[in-house]
Amino acid sequence: MSARSDIAGRAIWFARRPSGRGIRPVSWQGWATVIAYLAALLAAAVAMPKPNALEPMAFATPLIAILAVMGLATLLFVLLVRRRTAADD
Fold first, then answer.
1. How far apart are CA 37 and CA 77, in angstroms?
2. Rounded to whole angstroms, how far apart are CA atoms 75 and 55?
3. Ranges assigned E (strand) in the chain
């Protein structure tokens, strides 16, 4: 399978769906990116603190930190996907 590239010479990892809604991975790098992103979200979800009935606000700071990490991971994922998606022809 030959690698696809765009006009700038970057390898294409994702392509738009024929319907125009959404994208799909078209290379192993694209699939690896999606799997790594989902693994990072799962790890963050598992690391979320459990609420404590005795100290209801004790979990707020770690929760905010984990949600910030999840937000940053999502931002980086979206930027990478946009950069590696084939342009409209």
1. 7
2. 32
3. 14-16, 23-25
First CA to last CA across the chain, in angstroms? 21
Indicate the Cα dihedral angle 23, 26, 28, 34, nearest 10°: 10
Strand partners, 11: 5
Each residue's pLDDT expressed in tens, for the chain with a length of 89 residues: 456 766 666 788 998 888 878 889 999 999 999 999 999 989 888 887 777 666 766 667 777 888 898 999 999 999 999 989 877 65
Phi-psi region of 56 (alpha: psi -120 to 50; beta: other; left: phi over 0): alpha
Decide if 59 contacts 50 (C-beta within 8 A): yes
